[in-house]
Design a protein that fits this description.
This protein is of the alpha/beta class. It contains four helices and six strands; from the N terminus they run βαββαβαββα. It has a three-stranded mixed β-sheet. A three-stranded mixed β-sheet has the order 4-5-6. Strand 4, helix 3 and strand 5 form a beta-alpha-beta unit. It is elongated and about 60 Å long.
């Protein structure tokens, strides 16, 4: 039986490659990284490596005015989500699902005790994990 309250985030296929940037990096550079890496978000860290924000494709679409044509001079700090969802790897998957469902975010930054990023859990990662679990359950009962 699938018990989400007992399943830990670390058991999912979350993205372990954390792409980071700094608050004063130009928006244009970060957009190029999103495109080149084919990813949906970048974790923003301070000089100590601690998470201070998250910038996603959605942030670009919603927060960056179309009139801003000179993105070389615009810092990511201006448009990032300064309060991203953050959880520890040993948090329950049910809590992660609840956080994603009740927020406007599609990503959770996975952190260590020092607030340093270890990975990113996306809505897509959760769906893939659930789909895989359902297949295992179906094969068990058929």
């Amino acid at each position: 039986m699938l018990k989400l309250e007992e399943t830990k985030i670390q058991e999912t296929d979350f993205s372990k490659e954390v792409i980071v940037c700094h608050p004063h990096d130009p928006v244009k550079d970060i957009l190029q990284v999103l495109k080149l890496k084919n990813i949906g978000s970048v974790v923003v860290i301070n000089s100590n490596g601690q998470v201070v924000g998250l910038f996603s494709q959605r942030d670009y679409l919603i927060r960056v005015p179309i009139e801003k044509l000179n993105l070389d001079k615009e810092n990511i700090e201006t448009y990032m989500n300064a309060n991203p969802l953050k959880l520890y790897l040993d948090s329950n998957l049910s809590g992660a699902i609840s956080a994603l469902a009740t927020s406007n975010s599609r990503y959770i930054v996975l952190i260590d005790d020092d607030e340093k990023p270890l990975g990113v859990l996306s809505q897509g990662d959760v769906i893939k994990y659930l789909a895989k679990s359902i297949k295992v359950l179906e094969s068990t009962f058929s």
